[in-house]
Amino acid sequence: MRILFDYQIFTNQKFGGISRYFFEIIKNFQEGKNAEADIPILLSNNHYLSKYGITKYHNFFPKIENVNKKRFMTLINRMKSVYFLKKRNYDIFHPTYYNPYFLDHIGNKPFVLTVFDMINEKLNDKFPHDIKLTERKKILVEKASKIIAISESTKRDVMDLFGTEESKIEVIYLANSLVQDKIKETDPITPEKFILFVGSRYGYKNFITFIKSVSGILKKNKGLKVFCAGGGAFNKKELELFSELNIKGRVIQRNISDAELVGYYKNAELFVFPSLYEGFGIPVLESFACGCPLVCSDCSSLPEIAEDGGMYFDPYDKESMGNAIDLVLNDKDLRNGLIEKGYSVLEKFSWKKTSDQTLNLYKKVLENGRMNK
After folding, report:
1. How many whole angstroms separate alpha carbon 185 and alpha carbon 172?
2. Tens of pLDDT along 189-218?
3. What's the rounded Cα separation, in Å, for the pair 264 and 219?
4. b/e map of 145-168 (b: 16 or more CB within 10 Å)?
């Protein structure tokens, strides 16, 4: 079986959960030798392609001044993807994001679409709504041979918001990469005691509410700090909030590698995931894999994925959030219990399982296509 992927997410993301997902299933296909995977990419600065050599072109980038590199990469890679689409030398096409450019070139070949979340549609009253993204996603959901949803929560949202039939959607969970990659962690450069926050801090990630909820805890615990892994430097609004709450210097940020991230998870007092919505929530599994107690929101997919491995709070209520954090922070037995439950939950997830289930879905699509001819 030959699967054709495209350039989209590997042009848009240098790091990120979606490009990691596609990289992992492609890597598993290649290692298992049970499917051939083509990625028609000429130019990419994606970390996963670069690190593991999925494409021989990953290190090439023209030294051209005054050029929008992302736009240039998109143009070149789309041309190559269209060329492969028109050749029809594949069984299934799996686009890596929601641009429907390929519909004019795919002919009668089937395609499978992965829907990662419905944040744009679900929270459009709270954050800027990308109407174009929603329109594109809806078109592809309607035209796809089959939909992969990465959680039951996401599946329900697709059905509720787009009216998609349940029979068209199959849930295939994601997994964690920190342990599977056998990363040798490095020791973190942090205070002795810290609460961990991972990744982006904008919008639905709910960072501002988290900081407000934890400010009182920081004041009570003089040696405690908050460490923000990744997400870029603090902006002016965030720095002003730290000063306003009198916690300036108690919140630290660094951009770090996967190897460093393992060390931060392992050394944190706890990991807080205050997101208002997650399609899956890979950091949940990362914290489990590294033995870090999880305190997280009680909404969207998070209780489905974390099960009894997390201490939950209402992400819209900073008192609820603060109480949950304070409880876990001050109860060693509770922290140890969460760690053990996290290890147990983690056993249900692996990238091999994700890849095998995805391959089985492709086979069903092809079989249905043959029956309908």
Report:
1. 29
2. 666 899 999 999 999 999 999 999 999 999
3. 22
4. bbbbbbbebbbbbbbebbebeeee
Q: Are strands 112-115 and 193-198 parallel, antiparallel or unpaired?
A: unpaired
Burial-class residue 107 by CB neighbours within 10 Å (0-12, 13-18, 19+): exposed
Specify the amino acid at residue 100: P
CA 126 from centroid of its chain's CA atoms: 21
Query: Which spans in the chain are helix H?
Result: 8-12, 17-32, 47-52, 69-87, 119-122, 131-143, 152-162, 207-220, 236-244, 258-267, 282-289, 302-306, 318-329, 332-346, 351-371
Which tokens belong to 126?
């709270």
On whether the pTM is more than 0.90, the answer is yes
- Local structure of residue 85 (DSSP, 8 states): H
* Chain segment 41-67, per-residue pLDDT in tens: 888 888 888 766 665 444 455 555 555
DSSP per-residue codes, 106-146:
-TT--BEEEE---HHHHTTTTS---HHHHHHHHHHHHH-SE
